[in-house]
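Its record is set out here:
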Amino acid sequence: MKTFQSLCVFGDSTAYGAWDIEKGGWVNRLWMYFAEHDKNHHVNIQVYNLSIPGGTSDMILDRFESEADMRDADALIFQTGGNDSAYENTPDNFIVSPEKFEANIETIIQKAKVITKNIIFVGFINCDESQTSPVFWRNIYYKNKNINAYNKIMKKVCEKNGILFLDTFGLLNNDDFADGLHPNASGHKKLFEAVKGFLQKNKWI
């Protein structure tokens, strides 16, 4: 079993916990799980949610090293790809191109390895395209085909580098979304259970 004391999570609004009005998102549910199972403070695992709504792999790459260093991180989880794969106005105008996304994931991994060997990437979830083509707050389109393609890029880079990858695409159904893109409480619960099970399977907990 791996031992760590400072787990930092970097991601976008889904990792941030948007629209889970019950328990604040899958990362906060993970923190609550550790707190509940460590009432005697024998391990005292700190979970830091450093996710930013609207975040992309570009944004993670710009900031994760300094923020992880400030918290003495010895475990890192990244959830990204959804915003990268979205496009604005026209189908070829990706927020982050597939080529740049692949390069970003490669660079994040190399920099993360300097910090710790405990690294996991979580792929982005599917969406309800009837509400995301485009989303109501901006002329940005989220398509499952593109999300899945970016997830496959991430998986390929992780496998090449021996990094754990959790594929959550297809995990949620339309009832698990608050607005077609962001999970509601039931969606975040499913994500939490998937991440917890993955941590247990890989003997992180």
User: Anything to note?
Assistant: Helices lie at 13-16, 26-36, 57-70, 82-85, 98-115, 144-161, 185-201. The first helix runs from residue 13 to 16. Strands lie at 6-11, 46-49, 75-79, 87-88, 119-122, 140-141, 164-166. The first strand starts at residue 6 and ends at 11.
